[in-house]
Amino acid sequence: MFVGDSMTIGSTGDFTWRYRMWQHLNATFDGPYRIVGPRHTLHDPAEGAPTSSAYADPGFPDEARRHLAGWGEGWLHMAPLIGDMVRRHDADTLLVSLGLIDLGFYTNAEQTAENVRRFVDGAREAAPHIRAVLMPVIPNVRAAVDTAFGAECERFNELLAKAVADLSTPGSPLLLASEPDGWETDRATYDGTHPSEWGERLLAGAFAGAMHQAWGVGAPYGVPHRVPYGAPHGALSSR
Question: How many helices (H) and strands (E) does the chain have?
Fold first, then answer.
């Protein structure tokens, strides 16, 4: 289950990093799997709502579009939801990219870190053996010019690393992904925050790298293992 904010849900006309991860899993994952979640649409800027189905690749199948992400939603919003969503959709692995919106509008670093812990508790209550990869906050253009906001992002990432170290267990492992290698705001985003096509690949690569290194899932991003990229979009199957 992909869990995230505007960087994860994407906007009308985007491929999304979720799409890049789906391609990667189809190319490298040995065995059947499902992408799960209660939502499947993109954010529509014209409507100001998550109502768009206009993905850049119309061949991206509906069952692979599933997610739990929302424009303007953060740890604050997802912590109360995650338990029910994990239980309802039988999720066993969470790929989570949250925090920038929290720090920008809702909570400080310490409060946001507390919501991370609430999120993990809620997910484990629903599925005691769930595992998760957590992405640190990637500083955006605001962090570069607003020193106070930039410091909050740095502080939260320190607290997130501590939470992962404190809360990870052998039976329910947590991974802290590395900030995507080569992330440069002017190239990796189209507006200073939201990922460009290059940024989508970097985000997918960071998650894929963490899962491969720690759990042996798939292969390093961009290294075919099972079927080549560009294969027909039919490799997704039920778990």
Answer: 10, 7
How far, CA to CA in Å, does 40 sit from each of 55, 116, 214? Answer: 10, 24, 28
CB neighbours of 83 closer than 8 A, spacing ≥ 6?
122, 123, 125, 126
Does 151 score more than 50 pLDDT? Answer: yes
In a domain, 222, yes or no: no
Strand partners, 175: 133
- The per-residue pLDDT for range 15-66, each reduced to its tens digit, is 999 999 999 999 998 889 999 999 999 999 999 999 999 999 999 999 999 9
Q: Concatenated DSSP letters for 187-207?
A: HHBSSSSSB-HHHHHHHHHHH
- Which CA distances in Å does 132 have to 89, 139, 168, 169? 15, 22, 9, 11
pLDDT value of residue 30:
84
**Which residues does residue 49 pair with via DSSP β-bridges, in sequence order?**
44
By the 8 A CB rule, do 30 and 226 touch? yes
Question: Domain with 161 in it: what CATH number?
Answer: 3.40.50.1110
Q: How many folded domains does the chain comprise?
A: 1
| Domain encompassing residue 122 | 2-215
